[in-house]
Write a structure and sequence with these properties.
The structure is a homodimer.
Chain A: H1 16-29, E1 38-39, H2 42-49, H3 53-65, E2 69-72, E3 76-79, H4 93-99, E4 104-115, H5 118-123, E5 132-141, E6 144-153, H6 162-167, H7 170-176, E7 183-192, H8 195-201, E8 208-217, E9 223-232, E10 238-243
Antiparallel strand pairs in A: 1-3, 2-3, 4-5, 5-6, 6-9, 7-8, 8-9
The first copy, chain A, binds a DNA duplex through residues 15-17, 41-43, 51-55, 57-58, 71-77.
Chain lengths: 245, 245
DNA sequence: GACGTCCGAATGTCCTAACAAAGTGTGGAC
DNA sequence: GTCCACACTTTGTTAGGACATTCGGACGTC
């Protein structure tokens, strides 16, 4: 039985169960705990760390819902097999590229703070004639054009500038204004490109586009962004993890 | 404050928190609780139903992670706004079509119980020369061909017949054999179709394909299926809900 | 009327405690 | 030697209590 080394700071404002679950996650991701390893049982872990069993259980549960641990009654808890079992996260293309080391660059094609668009207004749940902020950007990965990103935002973002949009990703800009999308509904499809799209993305005639339209909402379920994106299918794909139940 | 009518059966084998959460989910989905409605607070709900607060909290938590309820400390719990806030479920195309009332029909193109395929063996984490079960199907929605589904399965499924595959979806067949995929990693992309694919799907020359490759795993993280699917992009799209954190 | 302080209400965290259910393994009966 | 029953281990469920934290509103002061 691997005896995980854990330090718990009772004076920290971070909840005990979260301190514990973070250190367990770290132990798995850096290989101190390996797939298939049996995990110390709840009772002994609780006693060893001076925590109550519910607290330890809660920490373990956090890893279970992420698929990092597997609990079996009567048997014990084991580290799940290798697979990247992470839940889908709401990420931005800009950050994805930055993380992957493919320096993202953005060119603003259109910025219209007075755009009346009925479908977009519907998506943002405001009256149809409401003037919206419309942003159309061309996103590069390194030197290659990768995607055309069209987004509609509520009027409160009318002060966004081209410089803002070219220096940072849209989601970072929203965060800076304390707007936090927490859930989004996306539809992913494919279609052939228009002439303009082919020109902008430098594509051949027969190459298809991968499309994604997104409705993003904050914690209260208020719409905060509506987007219509298209990607060069030879340079981009969506990775998704789905779960049963 | 809406007083939700709930009946709890203490003799049922179903956990109390789950009985409660199911009835709350039902109340939201059938409109008895409407978006924005304040939710009865935990203490009063616990007392009214004769349950402990932890039990009530756990039931509420289930709806919170699904995005159906929003908790705010000091304020209370409210029903989240309208949006379909459901986590991604692992579904099969066959069931999706059946639910949508578009009678699914399947034509088996290939069934090979002795297929040696190195990439597929790698995906299923078995030695490269292992004979796998390879299934290739053409899926119709009503009269229209919709998708070509290629799947590789471990040798234990060598007894699958064409009749099995044409009468039922692959996932139902797996379930009948107590194999339960619980998590899958999918990559969604697009490409142009080959001549054979165009013929099978009855597509024009310039129409693109939507592609999805899937690695599915059971609760222990063992690979149970590897699939490579392509869909007519004009007839199919993926709906996905993503969450922050 | 504007502003700040205090209080109550609600959720968040943490604890102890007990029993239930499921799976493994051991020991005894045959 | 085989097989069944029982005990033990481990996770699952439920209870009840205590205190912390956060938010909104009421109240008072200036």
């Amino acid at each position: 039985m691997a005896q995980l080394e854990v330090t718990i700071d009772r004076n920290s404002p971070v909840p005990l169960y979260h301190q514990l679950s973070e250190q367990m996650t770290a132990a798995i991701s850096d290989g101190r705990l390996r797939p298939g390893d049996p995990f110390e049982n709840e009772l002994s872990l609780a006693e060893r760390l001076g925590l109550s069993r519910p607290t330890v259980r809660r920490a373990i549960s956090e890893l279970v819902v992420q698929g990092l641990l597997v609990r079996r009654r009567g048997i014990g808890t084991t580290v799940a097999n290798s697979v990247v079992h992470r839940r889908d996260e709401l990420t931005s293309l800009h950050d994805d590229l930055a993380r992957a080391g493919r320096s993202p660059r953005t060119e603003v094609l259109t910025l219209d703070a007075n755009c009346v668009d009925e479908p977009a207004a519907g998506a943002l749940q405001v009256p149809p004639e409401t003037p919206l902020v419309f942003v159309e950007r061309l996103r590069f990965a390194g030197d290659e054009p990768l995607a055309i990103l069209a987004n509609w935002l509520p009027p409160q973002f009318a002060d966004l500038t081209r410089a803002d949009l070219e220096s940072d990703g849209l989601y970072n800009l929203l965060h800076q204004r304390s707007v936090r999308p927490v859930v989004a509904h996306q539809t992913i499809g494919a279609r052939s490109a228009t002439g303009r799209e082919r020109r902008l993305l430098g594509m051949g005639t027969s190459q298809p586009l991968l499309t994604m339209s997104r409705h993003a909402y904050d914690a209260d379920g208020r719409p905060v962004e509506f987007g219509d994106h298209c990607y060069r299918a030879d340079l981009y794909a969506f990775d998704i993890t789905v779960h049963e139940r």
